[in-house]
């Protein structure tokens, strides 16, 4: 096998987020040692994703058909819409099994310096969904950083004319964590998001 083939794979794997050259090299040699069927399975899965994946026509989650499984599930609570930045955020929330409403994926967060203006995100589509009626609550679950906060505020302002409750996910201390190790911002947010006991 030519070293050029290995080097090419390392270079391609290095393009993945969070994968540096050393990790890419380790993965390349791991893939090379895999049974052919397993390596082909990975390659086929990547090609299938690129060939078949599309965005849901309603919530912009990733799906293979026009409407995703969540939007087409009649058992979901259609009166609630949880707004997330990316499909990966939706997956994490679904894993909790504690939310049974619908979603809306923005495909990013506001960042004018990076060219991510409201027109580039799926904000207008969210407002249209809410305007059609039937939504009682919009839960904004954007990331707790500057861009996520700005996006949340922008959406909350846009939804004011509609008769819907707009809430923001609470954030603060992780379960099992110690207060003494929390930073000031996280602790402040925990105090702001406190709730009555009992």
Major sheet: size, sense and barrel closure? 4 strands, parallel
Would you tell me which CATH topology of the largest domain applies? Answer: Dna Topoisomerase Vi A Subunit, Chain: A, domain 2
Output the CATH class name of the largest domain: Alpha Beta
**How many domains?**
2
Our Rg estimate from Cα atoms comes to 21 Å
Could you give the count of β-strands? 6
| N- to C-terminal distance | 67 Å
Q: Count up the helices.
A: 7
Strand content is 5-15%
- State the helical fraction: 40-55%
User: Could you report the average pLDDT, rounded to the nearest whole number?
Assistant: 90
Structural class: alpha/beta
Identify low-pLDDT runs: none
Order of helices and strands: HHHEEEHEHEHEH
The neighbouring-strand order within the major sheet is: 4-3-5-6
The coarse overall form would be: globular
**CATH-derived architecture of the largest domain:** 3-Layer(aba) Sandwich
Q: Can you walk through the features of this model?
A:
- The chain contains seven helices and six strands; from the N terminus they run αααβββαβαβαβα.
- By secondary structure, the protein is an alpha/beta fold.
- It has two domains: 3-52, RecR Domain 1 (Helicase, Ruva Protein, domain 3, Orthogonal Bundle); 62-168, Dna Topoisomerase Vi A Subunit, Chain: A, domain 2.
- The chain has a four-stranded parallel β-sheet. The chain has a two-stranded antiparallel sheet with strand order 1-2.
- α4 (87-96) links the parallel β3 and β4 (101-105).
- The longest helix is centred in the first third of the chain and has 17 residues, at 36-52.
- The chain starts with a helix and ends in a 6-residue tail after the last helix.
